[in-house]
Specification:
With 334 residues, the chain is an alpha/beta fold. It is 37% helix and 16% strand. The protein has 12 helices and 10 strands. It has helices spanning 16-21, 39-54, 69-81, 99-106, 116-119, 125-135, 148-154, 197-204, 224-237, 266-279, 288-301, 320-327, and strands spanning 10-12, 24-29, 59-64, 84-90, 110-114, 139-141, 188-193, 211-216, 249-252, 309-314. Strand 8, helix 9 (224-237) and strand 9 form a beta-alpha-beta unit. Helix 2 crosses helix 7 and helix 7 (148-154) crosses helix 8 (197-204). Residues 163-183 and 330-334 have low confidence and may be disordered.
Length: 334
């Protein structure tokens, strides 16, 4: 497996919808950084792996569902960097294993199953102490990499992750293409939202003239606002580095969950297929497809101002499409 992580390319979206809205639209392709450990999952894992190494842990233990991108990425990263990995999976074991869990096992991950009631206690001291006693000294990473190490990594997505020629200059409103050696200034950075860790990190990496917009993939996702505030407060109170002393403005757009987490319908599938055919960008159904759909719909509604520039963060997760497509074979147009 390659140790090389490539800078994520920026891709302009030449969309009639964006042109009609008078908006410049770009995608940050985190999905192309590495064949297995990519997307926002790499950024959320990065400093957890470094802490585990610094503290001489040899085993990582983390949590996730049966189709979890985080489980997939942690298994691959553990194999890549020489850690033993344990995945605590929500629910009962089902054989044969789905593609996500099969891959995790192939990467050397030991799978442990917890019923849903017990799994809900995954962040409690009692269950974590039990897991420490059962498996010995393990470095525990929360589900989705949602901790301050995860936030720290995500502060680098829009800054350090972008090629030097695209970084902000002092005049953040300057609209000069990168061929001139300046940085394109994005007014809005859009991202899908599950645990809120990525949004928190991005908000901390922007200046006060920019805005982060998160699209929760969970039904009734407004509750994530409290989680975001908690992550931002705790991070700024920590000793961890922060690009700015306060976060940029952020907001949640909660109308594009398509029924809830991992819920997919034919409309979303067809949108994803058409977007890939038109722009050459594959989308994952759980996260990025919903965010991209939401952005395009908001453009039609005039949500953004003429002259605005938008950066859509492609957070990877394409591995999950295989399992979803297997479950949705009744849709013949996939």
């Amino acid at each position: 497996m390659s140790l090389i992580f490539l800078p994520p390319p920026l891709q302009q979206i030449n969309s009639e919808i964006a042109r009609d809205a008078g908006v410049d639209l770009y995608v940050l392709r985190l999905d192309l950084m590495h064949p297995l450990v990519n997307g926002n999952k790499w950024f959320k894992l990065k400093y957890n792996l470094l802490e585990a190494e610094e503290k001489n842990f040899t085993t990582l233990l983390t949590f996730g569902g049966a189709y979890s991108n985080h489980i997939y990425a942690t298994a691959a990263a553990g194999n890549l960097f020489g850690f033993r990995t344990i995945g605590v999976i929500r629910g009962e074991q089902k054989l044969p294993l789905n593609p996500t869990l099969s891959f995790a096992v192939q990467q050397g991950m030991q799978l442990v199953y917890l019923n849903r009631e017990t799994y809900r206690q995954r962040n409690t001291p009692a269950l974590q102490e039990y897991l420490q006693q059962r498996f010995g000294g393990v470095f525990i990473i929360p589900e989705g990499g949602s901790n301050l190490n995860g936030v720290r990594g995500c502060t680098e997505i829009v800054g350090d992750a972008m090629p030097n020629s695209w970084r902000r200059c002092a005049n953040d409103r300057l609209r000069v293409r990168p061929t001139a050696g300046y940085t394109y200034a994005f007014d809005h950075i859009c991202v899908a939202c599950g645990t809120a860790t990525t949004l928190a990190g991005i908000a901390l990496s922007l200046d006060q003239k920019q805005r982060a917009i998160a699209f929760p993939v969970l039904k009734n996702g407004a509750f994530l606002a409290q989680e975001i505030e908690s992550l931002l407060t705790n991070y700024l109170a920590s000793d961890l580095p922060s690009p700015y002393t306060s976060p940029a403005d952020w907001e949640l757009v909660c109308d594009y969950h398509f029924g809830g987490y991992a819920k997919v319908n034919e409309e979303l599938l067809l949108f994803s297929q058409q977007f890939r055919e038109e722009h050459g960008i594959p989308l994952d159904y759980v996260y990025t497809a919903k965010m991209f759909y939401g952005v395009m719909d908001l453009l039609k509604q005039g949500f953004f101002c003429q002259g605005d520039s938008l950066l859509l963060v492609h957070t990877g997760g394409l591995q999950g499409n295989i399992g979803i497509e297997q479950r949705l074979q009744k849709f013949t147009k996939i």
